[in-house]
Amino acid sequence: MAGKAFDRLVSIMNRLRQPDGCPWDQEQTHRSLRRYLLEETYEVLETLDNEDFSELKEELG
Question: Which CATH architecture has domain 2-60?
Answer without folding.
Answer: Orthogonal Bundle (1.10)
